[in-house]
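Q: What residues go here?
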């Protein structure tokens, strides 16, 4: 039996946690699926440097993934050879640890994809996001694809 592959993609909501509030971050958006995330407080014409994002807080350097734990293919999905995708909302703290993980979308409910993705992402480590010289808490989405080859 061939094993499945799991692929993760980080899609930044381009928004720091703080006074902006979670309501802005949790609003459903088609941009999450389109791989071109947008946020009302972020300018498309950035005065910031390469890899940075302009926001109401200033130029934000998003977190950089430095430790990735691969999610395991859930047993039920493996047995039935079913692909799936999970989109997770992730809060990365100033120290680079993952504080919160919330599922936003699951293409195959009942196969264990959400749980497997959450378990793995909670173990990820990041170089924290920065505004200027100071680290900040940062929210983003991560897409986990579970696929059989």
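A:
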């Amino acid at each position: 039996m061939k094993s499945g592959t799991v692929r993760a993609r980080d899609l930044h909501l381009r928004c720091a946690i703080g006074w902006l509030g979670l309501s802005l971050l949790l609003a459903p958006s088609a941009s999450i699926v389109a791989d071109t995330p947008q946020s009302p407080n972020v300018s498309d014409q950035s005065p910031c440097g390469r890899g940075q994002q302009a926001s109401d807080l200033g130029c934000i350097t998003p977190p950089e993934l430095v430790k990735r734990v691969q999610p395991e293919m859930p047993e039920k999905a493996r047995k039935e050879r079913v692909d799936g995708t999970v989109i997770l909302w992730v809060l990365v703290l100033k120290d680079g640890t993952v504080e919160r993980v919330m599922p936003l979308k699951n293409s195959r409910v009942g196969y264990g994809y959400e749980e497997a993705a959450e378990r793995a992402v909670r173990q990820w480590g990041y170089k924290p996001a920065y505004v200027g010289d100071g680290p900040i808490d940062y929210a983003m989405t991560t897409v986990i694809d579970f696929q059989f080859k």
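A: Context that may help when evaluating the design: Residues 10-40 have pLDDT under 50 and may be disordered. DSSP finds three helices and ten strands in the chain.
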